[in-house]
Design a protein that fits this description.
The protein is of the alpha/beta class and 355 residues long. The protein folds into two domains: 2-150 and 254-345, FAD/NAD(P)-binding domain (3-Layer(bba) Sandwich); 153-252, D-Amino Acid Oxidase, Chain A, domain 2. It has helices at residues 11-20, 47-55, 59-65, 81-94, 139-144, 209-213, 217-227, 233-240, 270-273, 282-299, 302-333, 342-345; strands at 2-6, 25-29, 42-45, 77-80, 98-100, 105-110, 115-119, 124-127, 129-132, 152-163, 176-180, 183-189, 195-202, 247-253, 261-262, 265-267. The strands form four sheets. Strands 5-2-1-9-16-15 form a six-stranded mixed sheet. A hairpin with a 5-residue loop joins strand 12 and strand 13. Helix 10 runs antiparallel to helix 11.
Length: 355
């Protein structure tokens, strides 16, 4: 069996690792060129996400990549997004996965014999299955269902970066929050002067790509300093000490996708159920999906595996998306949600059990 996995972020390589463990041949098709450098901020991999990495045999590798080399006091591990991408891709390749770049999916045709993926450069690949791990703006999702919903804008602008040489309160690898009348600031620290941070600013209309491109470092720094002028002084110190680029991105989620699968095609991760960063669960949900999908394919043929995977995952992930929406709204109106997170964080997948 040969699976074409579309997307090389978190979900794609994690799915490849899981599928290789059950003997499936895998080719990852990544739209970006090989020389394109990974960019992005950092993620707090939650306890349930670390458990999924453990099922993939990668928990300790991930912890070595984390800010402090260990989980924080509440069981989360802060990891640079680029580092998480890299370790998952390296693990996939080490297990026999092929990664092909410049493969931007435009269409896919299915038949009784398999699936043909067609790419923007005119090339194509043939496989038995096609698994869309191509993110919130997934092309696979719209191939499966041309009427599929698109991402929903949440009126928050996400910014963040990496700073050094700043002393901040809080235990290492513990996520800390500061609310101001104009925005929301979060950070974690190594305990040795390294600080990873993010900020959420209310932002009415969705900014265009041109508007985002015009937000240079000086403009963003000035806006951040004004937003958090009434916050503790160390917040401004962190902003000024940021050595990385300042990343600014609009916030989106995907509240409901009616159709996850058709014939030999299926979607997972953000392609099926993107949640806002506020949930802290985007990467962890993708990692869980990868393990569950592989379990289903281990025991069931493709279409039946797709159906069982959706049955096992839909209620949970849609609950997390809703949780993220409520938490994002709280950053706008100041009413903190009272949701218990035990059902999210305590979730574990028993790899050995039947589906």
């Amino acid at each position: 069996m040969h699976a074409l996995v579309i997307g090389g972020g978190v979900a794609g390589p994690a799915t490849a690792v899981a599928l290789r463990s059950i003997g499936v041949e895998v080719t990852i098709c990544e739209a970006r060129p090989r020389e394109d450098k990974d960019v992005g901020l950092w993620v707090m991999v939650a306890p349930n996400g670390l458990a999924a990495l453990d099922a993939l045999g990668l928990k300790q590798t991930a912890l070595r990549e984390s800010l402090t080399g260990a989980v924080g006091p509440t069981g989360f591990a802060p990891i640079r997004r680029a580092g998480l991408y890299r370790l998952l891709r390296e693990a996939a390749v080490a297990r026999g996965t092929r990664i092909e770049h410049d493969r931007k999916l435009v269409d896919a045709d299915t038949s009784a014999d398999g699936v043909v993926a067609r790419f923007a450069d005119g090339s194509s690949l043939t496989g038995d299955l096609l698994i869309g791990c191509d993110g919130i703006h997934s092309r696979t999702r719209s191939i499966i269902d041309p009427a599929a919903p698109v991402a929903r804008y949440i009126p928050l602008l996400n910014l963040g970066g990496f700073a050094s040489g700043v002393d901040v309160p809080g235990e290492p690898a513990q996520l800390q929050f500061i609310r101001s009348p104009k925005g929301f600031f979060g950070y974690t620290t190594s305990g040795k002067g390294e600080v990873w941070w993010f900020a959420n600013l209310p932002w009415g209309a969705e900014p265009s790509r041109a508007e985002l491109a015009a937000m240079d470092r000086d403009i963003l720094t000035e806006r951040l300093l004004d937003t958090f002028a009434d916050s503790p002084a160390f917040v401004a110190d962190v902003i000024r000490a940021t050595y990385s680029s300042l990343y600014a991105q609009p916030t989106h989620d995907l509240p409901g996708v009616p159709t996850w699968r058709r014939d030999r095609l299926v979607i997972l991760g953000d392609a099926a159920h993107a949640t806002t960063p506020t949930s802290g669960q985007g990467s962890s949900m993708a990692l869980e999906d990868a393990v569950v999908l592989a379990k289903c394919l281990r025991e069931l043929p493709g279409p039946q595996a797709w159906a069982r995977y959706e049955q096992l995952r839909r209620e949970r992930v849609e609950g997390v998306v809703a949780l993220g929406a409520r938490a994002s709204a709280a950053k706008l109106d100041g009413a903190l949600p009272a949701d218990s997170l035990d059902w999210v964080l305590d979730y574990r997948i028993d790899w050995a059990s039947p589906v």
